[in-house]
Design brief:
Blueprint (H helix, E strand, L loop, with lengths): L3 H54 L3 H12 L4 E6 L4 E4 L5 H8 L10 E4 L7 E10 L2 E11 H52 L14 H48 L6 H32 L8 E4 H18 L3 E5 L5 E4 L1 H17 L6 E9 L2 E7 L22 H6 L6 H11 L3 E7 L3 E8 L5
Parallel strand pairs: 7-9
Antiparallel strand pairs: 1-2, 1-5, 3-4, 4-5, 6-8, 9-10, 10-12, 11-12
Helix pairs in contact: 1-4, 4-5, 5-6, 6-10, 7-8, 8-10
Length: about 450
């Protein structure tokens, strides 16, 4: 079954090529015919001029008869006249058409002769005339005739060759058009079917590579799109599964302990404990909803980043002072470095959220009497902010997924510590919103290093 696009493209190619071929054949045929007729006329004129030379060299009866005898055996005819155009001799019987040509009054015939009749399509003869002189005076004319039947026969053979060439060209054209249209439309049809599958939610699309042209690029783009959509679908499903699980846990605690707290046979102390648990779970739920709200705004680029020129060393020092009591409470050390004068364009409130989140992780996952360091420096033409702790670290296999939403290395421990699994996702989104990049290096039981790369503010 021929597809619509294949048929349309094939017909379009066919008709365009047919028009081009017809124009080319017409021009070529016309040029060849005119050239061939012109060759016959010039040959006839040259033959007449040759007879004139013979007559001028030796004008006598023998020469006249000799010329007539030569043309009798040729496919041309000759008529020799005097200067009054009275016929002296001819190579064959003169018919009425030849008589008409000979009887035409001649004026100013050049020395090299003149073509008298060139209308080969509708006249029986083509004709030329060459004047000859004897003793320096005009003595007469040599008329040459050639039947147009011979020319038409040549043209007919030429037409046959052209018809054969046209038929062969047509056959080759049809085969070529079918092949080209099929070759061009096959990948387009495959891409159409692939996009139909994508529109129906089937992302198992794999298109073959097709070179480095535009079709190849389009094919690869559709394949990449299918993979991205598949990944997004999986991420969405995983996200919905994770969020339903994360929401279910605190809601279950809240509902369960609320039911217990409503009982009349429990003490006020027990009721207070249950209410505290409900409050804590509500706080976790509120934090999670806030994180989800922030991520949603980042996803739709609705998160406002108000960039301000900030001197980084003093900015980091202020944050360290704010976080120091939390480190001291857990008997941990916090060191800040960055004596260099470095200025960056950041949103102070949003970037503080980044640093506090990372420092808070260091508190949660580090043991007492360990050290956490934060410093800023110039490196490789950019500004590098480093946060290093001496905590439990992250297994190598978990590092590629650490910034994924709801991803936890140790789910049970994270939940006990109050984490939502969204903090590092928000950190990554906020860093990228500032035009920066974040990297992580970690080793189990040896601590974790976060690296944030930013552009330095130029004066």
């Amino acid at each position: 079954m021929i597809n619509k696009i294949t048929l349309k493209l094939g017909l379009w190619f066919f008709f365009v090529m047919i028009m081009i071929e017809v124009c080319l054949f017409f021009v070529l045929h016309t040029g060849l015919v005119e050239s061939r007729v012109e060759e016959e006329l010039q040959a006839l004129l040259a033959r007449g001029n040759s007879h004139r030379e013979v007559l001028e060299d030796s004008y006598n009866k023998e020469t006249l008869h000799h010329i007539a005898l030569m043309e009798l055996k040729a496919n041309t005819e000759v008529i020799i006249t005097d200067h009054e155009q009275r016929m002296i001799i001819s190579s064959s019987k003169v018919d009425s058409e030849e008589q008409k040509v000979v009887s035409k009054k001649l004026r100013n015939v050049p020395r090299n002769g003149k073509i008298l009749e060139r209308r080969w399509e509708n006249e029986p003869y083509i004709a030329t005339v060459s004047p000859y002189l004897t003793s320096g005076h005009q003595s007469g004319y040599v008329y040459m005739f050639k039947s147009t039947d011979q020319i038409q026969g040549l043209i007919s053979k030429l037409n046959e060759h052209f018809l054969f060439a046209a038929a062969l060209t047509m056959a080759l054209l049809i085969v070529t058009v079918l092949f080209l249209s099929k070759a061009l439309t096959t990948p387009l049809i495959q891409m159409k079917r692939a996009t139909e599958k994508l529109s129906k939610g089937d992302f198992s699309v794999r298109l073959p590579g097709r070179g480095e042209d535009e079709l190849g690029e389009l094919s690869r783009s559709i394949t990449v799109l299918a993979q991205d959509l598949k990944h997004l679908k999986e991420e969405r499903n995983e996200f919905l599964s994770s969020i339903s699980h994360e929401l279910r846990t605190p809601l279950t605690y809240i509902k369960g302990y609320a039911d217990v707290a409503r009982r009349k046979n429990i003490t006020e102390k027990e009721r207070g404990q249950y209410l505290n648990i409900i409050y804590e779970e509500s706080e976790k739920l509120s934090t999670m909803m806030e994180d989800l709200f922030n991520l949603a705004k980042l996803d739709r680029n609705a998160f406002v980043i108000d960039l301000t020129r900030i001197e980084l060393s003093s900015y980091i020092t202020a944050i360290c002072k704010k976080m120091l009591p939390a480190f001291q409470e857990k008997k941990m050390n916090l060191e800040c470095e960055g004596s260099e004068h470095i200025e960056v364009m950041i949103d102070p409130l949003r970037f503080e959220q980044i640093l506090i989140n990372l420092l808070d992780n260091a508190i949660k996952y580090s043991a007492p009497h360990t050290k956490t360091s934060i410093w800023a420096e110039r490196e490789k033409g950019k500004v590098l902010i480093s946060i290093k702790d001496e905590g439990t670290g992250i297994p190598k296999e978990d590092i590629p997924f650490i910034f994924d939403r709801f991803y936890r290395v140790d789910k049970s421990r994270s939940r006990n510590l109050g984490g939502t699994g969204l903090g590092l996702s928000i950190v990554k989104e906020l860093v990228e919103a500032h035009g920066g990049q974040i990297e992580i290096k970690s080793e189990r039981q040896k601590g974790t290093l976060f690296l944030i790369w930013l552009e330095e503010a130029i004066e």
